[in-house]
Write a structure and sequence with these properties.
Elements (H helix, E strand, L loop, with lengths): L37 H13 L4 E4 L2 H12 L11 E5 L3 E11 L4 H20 L2 E13 L13
Parallel strand pairs: 3-4
Antiparallel strand pairs: 1-3, 2-3
Helix pairs in contact: 1-3
Length: about 150
């Protein structure tokens, strides 16, 4: 019989002496659960979509009209989630966006850029996998159109 040489193995640190496993039984990052609300993902996606050149506004005509009225009410503020709907699971999310594009831009290019920007922002900030971003272009902003319709009540 021949003897096989014994391999030099690095010694594993003693669990008792490791600062990460000393008390709780695992790395601190693995103790507990993090949940992310739909509204958080909607805000991130809304901000990322608005950053794309060629996106004039978010939401349908009705949502934009309602939002314009709400912005005039004290404390109403601008809604960054207008035109964004998110479904968030444990590790994945899916998004639906409704946008208005500026006249003259390539809708296909704007939609691609929005999709890329939204996916990058949501995945970077939340760690969730974005499985889909559906984009509905609901309107085109013409150069001579008024910005927002005036509310009937003042």
């Amino acid at each position: 019989m021949t003897e096989t040489p014994q391999r030099n193995r690095p010694e594993s640190p003693d669990k008792e002496s490791s600062p990460l496993t000393k008390r709780g039984g695992g790395a601190p990052a693995s103790r507990g659960r993090t949940t992310i609300a739909d509204g958080v993902v909607e805000k991130i996606a809304g901000m990322a979509a608005r950053d794309v050149v060629g996106v004039h506004a978010m939401g349908s005509g009705f949502a934009r009209t309602f939002g314009a009225v709400r912005e005039r009410v004290p404390g109403g503020g601008k809604s960054v989630t207008r035109g964004v709907k998110a479904e968030v699971g444990e590790s994945q999310t899916a998004l639906d966006l409704e946008i208005v594009v500026d006249y003259g831009v390539s809708i296909i290019d704007v939609a691609r850029d929005v999709r890329e920007n939204v996916i990058a922002a949501v995945e970077r900030m939340t760690g969730l996998e974005v499985v889909e971003v559906n984009i509905a272009v609901s309107d085109v902003k013409l150069p001579d159109e008024e910005e927002e319709p005036e509310p009937r009540l003042q």
